[in-house]
Amino acid sequence: MTSTTDQVAHLADLAATTLLRFATAGSVDDGKSTLVGRLLHDSKSVLTDQLEAVERVSASRGQDAPDLALLTDGLRAEREQGITIDVAYRYFATTRRRFILADTPGHVQYTRNMVTGASTADLAVVLVDARNGVIEQTRRHAAVAALLRVPHVVLAVNKMDLVGYEESVFAKIAEEFTAYASDLGVPEITAIPISALAGDNVVEPSSHMDWYGGPTVLEHLETVPVSHDLTACPARFPVQYVIRPQTAEHPDYRGYAGQIASGVLRVGEAVTVLPSGRTSVIAGIDALGESVDIAWAPQSVTVRLADDIDISRGDLIAPSANPPATTQDVIATVCHVADQPLAVGARVLLKHTTRTVKAIVKEIPSRLTLDDLSQHPDPGQLVANDIGRVVVRTAEPLALDAYADSRRTGSFLLIDPADGTTLAAGMAGESFASQARTTVQADEEGWDF
């Protein structure tokens, strides 16, 4: 527990620490919100008034100790039902690292919420109730993490206190989950036995599990290697705005403003403007009001080219030596997030970086059943929480990278042109990093979710 004054005093130190974005997932009542509350409480990231409010509510319910899950379950319906309904974002920090945490719902019908929370995560914490082991929802969350190419996954085997802190129980669950997630192509899996309610191995090591010699949850979160080095990827610069002052001081200035999505831009570098394919050379780069010779992701800059080219919002500037391919036939995996179905023939808007184009859903070749990872052919439509393969024909060419190569320039949204509702979140290219998928005949019920 810490005061506002104490937190402000540490802001300068925290500015120098790295940032980790992570999401929690798990089945209903596995203890996600309690784990998050324990992390916040034991890492002294809870303000005094917040803790007092939780203590009052807990006492009114006849609970002897504060219900730490209340620190994250902010919606009234969540508090009343004791479940998580929407993604709850929390921000906290230690002396070693800053964190942005997304606590996602556990119900099957909220799979789309997990996709939202984990889409930008560097790490996913998947909770399992030690009494129940790996269940269908556990496999579903592992599959979503693999689909979204989350580089690190932590298996938190919770409620170890209810199974007598038995090592054999933990070992069996860890082995089963690791085999499954590895088969999906998850690159790194760390299993940690915990009790979120009692605080075992969350922030402090547990005296009840001396057979476990690994890190606590917080220690792992503080030390897991996270690379935000977008400069290693090919340069991608989506144009957000064209700057033409046409003033006496700058009569001929023409600059293209935006945020570098990946890579490095250098003055003198040959570039290609997509989708037109016109080429030029970077004549100058302006950043924070000054001219610079080099800029890198994720800086926001203004790029000036040596040639006058017709460039507008949505165009992409990339190195001529390594430009992305352009296409009007987008083949991708999408998670349907809207209540209204997405059907073959639907007219949509496709938003990719700063570019929005008209499009038609030409095919829905298959729908993925996350329970067993089978592909059901030709479902005809996708409903809320469905994940499926689609082929979308766009009215204009798009410069898309594969999602496996770039989570930023390989992702897109499908939008309802009538009211602007987001219909689906898309990931271009292959679904999983590994493992061939089997195709089965569609079941009589039609849907698995």
Characterise this structure.
- The protein has helices spanning 4-9, 11-14, 32-42, 48-60, 76-81, 111-118, 136-147, 167-184, 217-223; strands at residues 18-26, 88-93, 97-103, 123-129, 152-158, 188-193, 237-238, 241-243, 255-259, 264-266, 270-274, 278-287, 290-292, 294-296, 300-305, 316-319, 326-336, 342-343, 347-352, 355-369, 374-377, 381-382, 387-399, 411-415, 422-428.
- By secondary structure, it is of the alpha+beta class.
- The strands form five sheets. Strands 7, 8, 9, 11, 12, 13, 15 and 16 form an eight-stranded antiparallel sheet that branches. Strands 2-3-1-4-5-6 form a six-stranded mixed sheet, sandwiched between helices.
- Helix 7 packs across helix 8.
- It is globular and about 75 Å long.
- Residues 1-16, 75-85 and 435-449 have low confidence and may be disordered.
What secondary-structure arrangement, pairings included, does this model have?
Layout: H1 4-9, H2 11-14, E1 18-26, H3 32-42, H4 48-60, H5 76-81, E2 88-93, E3 97-103, H6 111-118, E4 123-129, H7 136-147, E5 152-158, H8 167-184, E6 188-193, H9 217-223, E7 237-238, E8 241-243, E9 255-259, E10 264-266, E11 270-274, E12 278-287, E13 290-292, E14 294-296, E15 300-305, E16 316-319, E17 326-336, E18 342-343, E19 347-352, E20 355-369, E21 374-377, E22 381-382, E23 387-399, E24 411-415, E25 422-428
Parallel strand pairs: 1-3, 1-4, 4-5, 5-6
Antiparallel strand pairs: 2-3, 7-16, 8-9, 9-15, 10-14, 11-12, 11-16, 12-13, 12-15, 17-23, 17-25, 18-22, 19-20, 19-24, 20-21, 20-23, 24-25
